[in-house]
Give the backbone structure.
Amino acid sequence: MTLFPAVVEAHLAVLLIVVPLIAAPLCSLLRRESLAWIFAAAVSVVCLALAVAILGQVMANGPIAYEMGGWASPWGIEFRIDRLNAFVLVIVSAIAAVVMWYAHGSVRAEIGGDQQPHYYTLYLLCLTGLLGVTATGDAFNLFVFLEISSLSSYVLISLGAGRDRRALTAAFTYLVMGTIGATFYVIGIGLLYMVTGTLNMADLAVRLAPLADNTTVLAGFAFIMVGLSLKLALFPLHLWLPNAYTYAPSAVTAFLAATATKVAVYVLLRFLFTVFGTDYLFEELTLNGFLLPLAVIAMFIPSLVAIFQTNIKRMLAYSSVAQLGYMVLGLSFASITGVTATVIHLFNHAVTKGGLFMALGAVLLRTGGVSLQNMAGLGRQMPLTMAAFVVGGFSLIGVPTTVGFISKWYLILAALEDGRWPIAFLILASSLLAVIYIWRVVEVAYFQPALEGRKIEEAPLSYLIPTWLLIGASLYFGVDATYTLEVAGSAAAHLMGNGG
Amino acid sequence: MTEVMSHFNYLVVVVLMMIGFYIVISGSNLVKKVVGLSIFQVSVFLLYISMGKIIGGTAPILDDRFTVYSNPLPHVLILTAIVVGVATTALAGALIVRINEAYGSIEEDEIYRQDGDA
């Protein structure tokens, strides 16, 4: 199956990055917000088509290695796309395309004024960065794309300042933390370059194999791990995330929550399993002795904190930190089942959280706030929005027929396979915490009377359709997970095959 | 002593890095935080530049008279990183201007105090 002519088909990997990169500055030239929106929406749909074509190509013919400008690979920059990053590319571009539909109404309501074209410009830049991070096979090039996506997301978050000035301080804190994370990553890459003289990930993997116990390499590894953990908000380094997600405009939160941290998890997977390889890290250094407790703490403490939040957006942000704990838990087993669980949870959590934040955006539009009191009686006043929220909530808990169940199932399988039944028990116990925080919202929305004299309509279709697209996906892939499991499973097998 | 002197650049890198990092953590003035962040980033530039430099090496020019070259790649990488650093500092500066407009202060404690009351 070929979506595009042969010329395009040969350059898919680079077009996926170049199209949004060139579109972003063009978008800022369009002064009318609806023009900018139509343009950006068209670009994001093109990106999705390109990403789907790449996944098709990779599934059919194996990994794509694209040499930038024709420079051969250890010297030039290479884009290397195997099943894992092809899958992540599709996740990112699909979420981007869906959120773009949602953005039109939500950006007009929450940002407004002449800043709207800038929003679309930054959105496309952020998309470029995220897709670039995922596609590239060059460690330094990854840093550049990481900073493109981070810098644009700082600005996107600060656009929430029109509603709440705390968006500015949240963006500033994220900027400081994000820059420290990125700089740590650069230090790590520098140390690896000192020893190996290469920046190409595949080449690094070959040259690092005999150097596993070299002190410089280990120091480099530590810097890269800490830097990436900051970017992905792994538990003790998550402090930037709750404020950033709470005060950003709804469309930005939905987009970032579903993509930015997922891409960071992908980079972590890539470095752990492709570049460094599992043998030394997990057997000699017993890295899982470090990652596993962190992941388990991340499953519990942020969930506990989430229970006590009255701002629902902040509650979901803490829940994101907990869900990232599940992803790190999966990969810390260093088994094919464990990595499959991580990869499939990347997808599952992206659709669930994206949908939940969009539903909250609709609540914000109609009630003017996202605190618990605002939700009173909404179950009857905004039935479709709240139904979406409840289904998304079920998926966070892991109720069967939702995608959350598939993720938890594979996580527990991986834990049992590893002979760690207490961990399997802890996964179930932490799901109970999710029951509590989702139930608080359900109780207020369905069992409390609406505030007196408050007339609230259902959200407009421009909100409902994208929300239900993602929530529908979380139901569909919860019932029939054949395709996602096939991609995630083969990506994990490929990844482990390379590393081990 | 020669051991120390031969790694002089790297010592400077470590000292600068710690100074920058300390300012970011301890400073309560947002501008000072950004200054610390810049120092922290610059120390990494120095790390890269040092590793590419060979004493007595020249720029990599194809000519019979030169035989010892410095490695240009880390230097080029750092050119990119400098651009990223400039963009980060500029963006941080812009955010601080907005924060000052919104709060009338760029002191962290003052900003938190105002939000605590709000």
